[in-house]
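Researcher: Please translate sequence to structure tokens.
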Amino acid sequence: MELLKSVAQQPKVTSLSAMKAVYNLRLFYFLTGLTGGLLGPYLTTLFSYNGLSSNQVGIVMSIGTCISVLIQPIWGMLVDRYQCTRLILTLSLAVPGILAYFYNTGLFMMMVIIYSVSTIFAASQIPTSDSYAVEAAKQAKKTYGSIRSLGSFGNALGGFAGGLYLSYFLIDSIWVPYLILNVAAITVVLILPFNRSRKSVSGNSPFSKGVKELITNPIFIVFLLGCFMVNQTLTAFNTYFVLSFQAIGGSFSLAGTALLIASLTNVPAMVLASRVINRIGYEKTLLFAATAYIVRWGIQLFFPIPFVVIGIQVLHGLSFGFFYIAAVEYVAKITGKHIQATGQSVFNMVFVGLAGMVGNLLNGYLFEVGGPNLMYLSCSISSCFGAILLFYVYKITKQRLNPA
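Model: Translation complete:
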């Protein structure tokens, strides 16, 4: 009990400790990026190594994604009400780190349970740390991006390190460096100063009222459908890339190189995205990114060659990086200040939650029955439909701004 009380203590962030908080947060994001990059891309390979089919992998991942969508609001409520940020971040690292060892059981239902429990706790990490990072950045007069970018950099190095590690060791031992990095991240959490005065961001309108206003906006609905069609294809990279790369003759070390390239392109792309949006607008930026997705999947479909696939990962920043920044800022614009928080919640439920669940199930099944080619064909077609829907949003928006 004394340990939990110590962990849950919330020292107040002052102007004198603001810079220390920013430096510690950068280290925290870097370490959590390393852990995610080390295990995340290779988790499906670990499942496959332990006897799961691609279809079963998709089911496991989809259940976890579903749970993360449902559980995130509960974690947010706990943090806002009880101010237990440090305790929740510690659990978000400790529980998945310890449970990672048990993925080696090889039992389907056991993996479902372990992955689901890990996801329940891990789901709290991003919204909890992000909400504090935004506040700390303001107090230190820094940008949130200067903190968060360390996570992308860590993720890139983690993916590369994971591939290198698996070139020398069996995949059933990857839980060891994963646990060590989680412990290192927990030590950083324990020295982070936290702000008791952080206010709950719930918007000025009740959630149900805000949702009703959004779902009666046809442009917003078409936008969400376009985002869903595009982003469900990303599971082909996030979940099945290593498996599909091995299927065309790639090695673990080369897969790590590809993941490194993809993650590194995200950092400059997300910085550049704001300039592109200011120049051509939200809708055109979304269309540009959707087109990058089509090209990305199309090349991997017609040129299933390891070094071609590695090279095409430079499009990750232009596709995901541009699309995500433009979509989030578009939601902020179209919803208005009175339901902005609700708009972002609905967007994330579709963009991350629903698209992730459907994408994991669909691409897992397609990979099972037709290999990488069928999966990437489906991704190309889905991205095309998404681009068409987003083009419709662009045309309607243009007509409203310039009526005849």
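Researcher: Any highlights?
Model: The first helix runs from residue 2 to 8.
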